[in-house]
Every structure is written in C-alpha cells, then in structure tokens.
C-alpha cells in the first residue's frame, strides 16, 4: 500500500481509487488521497504483525537512532510539510500554526526517542527483588483528527515505535494528505510494514476500532465516537488511549493584571482558530473586571489578521470543513437569539472564503446556553460573569468533560488553590493549552483516559512485565 501523496500532477490510475482533497481556504482541489478499504486495512495490519518481531528485536538504541533521523528529516522538509498542512487544514503558516506544528513533530519525535524508560525496582527487602520491565504490545492502531493532523499523529506514532510496536494509522478523511506525507518521512527510516497509513472513510475507522489484529488503539476525536471505539474494542480487550476533546473552562480571579494576561487569554482561546481540543472554550470573569476583559479580548480579536494561510501576514484561518462551520454558526446564532451580546464578530466572513467565520466574543451569556455548554470548536468565546469564586468553580466543574482548565490571577497562591479544585486532566495557571513533551497529558470524565508524552506516554504503549527473584 503506497503512502505517497497523490497530487494533481500525478493522478491515480482509477478515479474510483482516489478522493479529491480541497484547500481549506479556497475549496480548490489540491490533491487526491487514496481510498482504502477494510481489505486494505486487513493487509496493513497483517504486514505490521509480520514486521513487529524484527522491529522489536532492533532494541531501544537502534530505534532511538532511527527516530532521531526521522526528526532530522522532518526539519529538513519542514517548509514543504508546512505548506501542505496549511492548505489542507487551513491554519496559517505563521503564528502558533503550520510551521509551529511541523516543528512540534520533530520535537515530539525526539522526545519519544530520547526519554529514558529503565526497569523500575518496585520491591527489594534483601531477599526478594522485583522489577517492572516494559515490553512492546504488538500492533498499535492510531485514529487521528483533522485539527492537528501531523502533530497528533506523531504523538501516537513515535512513542509506539520507540517501544517496539508497529503502527497502522487511520487519518481523518478531511486531512489525509498531511498524514500521508508525514508517514513518508518516517518510512524513509523504517523497515517495510512497520508504519502504514490507511486512508479510508468511517467504515475503515470503525474497522480499526474493532479489529482483532490490534493490541492497542489510540484515538483522538469526539466523545461520541470515543464511546463507539470503547464498544468496538471490547470483544478483544485492546488497550485504549482516548483523548476525546473538552469544553475547557477558564476562571479570571478578581484583581488580575489584565495587561499581563490578555494576550495569553486570547491565544488560549483562539489557537488554531479555536479548533483545538484543549482550547479555552468558556471564560468565567469576576464582575469587577468583566467589562474590561470583554473589551480586551474584543480588541485583540479585531486586530488579529485572518485569511488564507499562505499569506505570511495571517495568523487565523478558516474552519476546516463545512460540518464544523455549520456548528459554529448555529451556536452563535442561537446565542444571539437568546439575547447574548455579540461584542465583535458573529458572522461568516465570506469575503475571505467559504468557511471563514469572524473571530467572535460573546458577552452577557449564561450557563445553560448551548454556546456555553457545548464544545464549539471554532473562533468563538462566551464570556460569563460571576460574583463568587466558589460558584465559578462549581460552574466550571459542571461540564461532563474534563480535558483542561485554567486560572488567571496575579496572586499565584490563590490561583493554585482554585486550580486544585478544578476537575480536569491539566489545569494551567496564567496560560492555557501549553503542552510539553515531557509532561503527561490526558483527560478525565468524558474527555477520555490514558496519558501521552514523556515516560507516562511510553508506558501507555507498552506491556508492563514484573520480573521477580
């Protein structure tokens, strides 16, 4: 199975075996992705199963060497990869966007390669000695999203390969070209069958979730789809890592120096045009500073350039697909109809392209409104007023999701005390969405389970084995 990107210049032999992929900003066709089937998936998993023992036998040092070579190659091809990503996903080249994502792919690949994971002595009384070792699981199935297609694929692929597993990737049908191109970079340094991409529709994704030939499934996507992954994987008890998105809350405590935090708040909300699982999606602000925060965010929203990602001046792009565009428009229209105040934005920016939506700040809105209660996943933030910190914490925790949260304050001690009470896998202070390849990341409640990054991420794609003497 080829993992080569099919472009307009190199069409496939059969029109039935390819699918056109549009530019997210212009909707012009930029290339064609192979349309793989469940039979192709079966063959990829069989090849991965056959290749896995030899890959594991290479040992950690050789796998580390190869992954570091992959990272070198990602850096060498960074501009090419960033341009493809910008066109397919929509995020601009500059800002915390396409070039940033490609750079992160190299960083996370090196981290997976170089993070030490030695056997752990868990008991030794002079008579009995017990150690935990970490063996490969076998074949890992990775199902990725369309919002950060390259970076999240690396989070799945690199740790699994480092630990001696082989990997079969099912990218989102919206962004397959970026993942196929990334796999080409990896496969220049890997034996045949160790890493394959199966570019298919939802039927193929469902087959990955329930495939008896997989030992581990890593899924990033919606909570609804995550539940189906759990159900499908139950019959063969495949291990799971599920990152299911969130409706992250931020709380601005009274007395906060807004000049110090305003830009951090903005990017915590609008990173990747709001299309980030761990973006700040509902902001609670004390009444004493409510109007000031609303106006600060609105001012930044008006000033941030939005448009085609290949324009070096832009830092915000379109919604990636029609379905997500419709969700954002529906939620904002509903909020307006319920009496919320649209401070800035609030409409489609069709003059920029079919799927652009203005950067939007919504005020005078309450919990119970769909824009607050649902994950909008776009360039919109509802700002909710509160008068009592305990009430704000309770409202933040009321969501069924718990991926991330944040507290904003000039009083670090007060912020830390509030952070300890928030129900989320990660709680940031005076930042939101900042991730580190050495710091574990994962959600609680309906945002999934399992951790990625660092030693915890390596353990998640390995089988613990106790050796006792």
Automatic annotation (TrEMBL):
InterPro entries in the record: Ald_DH/histidinol_DH (IPR016161), Ald_DH_C (IPR016163), Ald_DH_CS_CYS (IPR016160), Ald_DH_CS_GLU (IPR029510), Ald_DH_N (IPR016162), Aldehyde_DH_dom (IPR015590), LUC3-like (IPR044086)
Keyword field: Coiled coil, Oxidoreductase
Coiled-coil portions: 64-91
SUPFAM superfamilies, per database record: ALDH-like
Residues annotated as domain Aldehyde dehydrogenase: 18-466
MF (Gene Ontology): oxidoreductase activity, acting on the aldehyde or oxo group of donors, NAD or NADP as acceptor
Keyword Oxidoreductase: yes
CDD domains: ALDH_AldA-AAD23400 (cd07106)
Active site residues of this protein: 243
Pfam families, per database record: Aldedh
Family recorded in the similarity comment: Belongs to the aldehyde dehydrogenase family.
Protein name stated in the entry: Aldehyde dehydrogenase
Species annotation: Microbacterium testaceum (Aureobacterium testaceum)
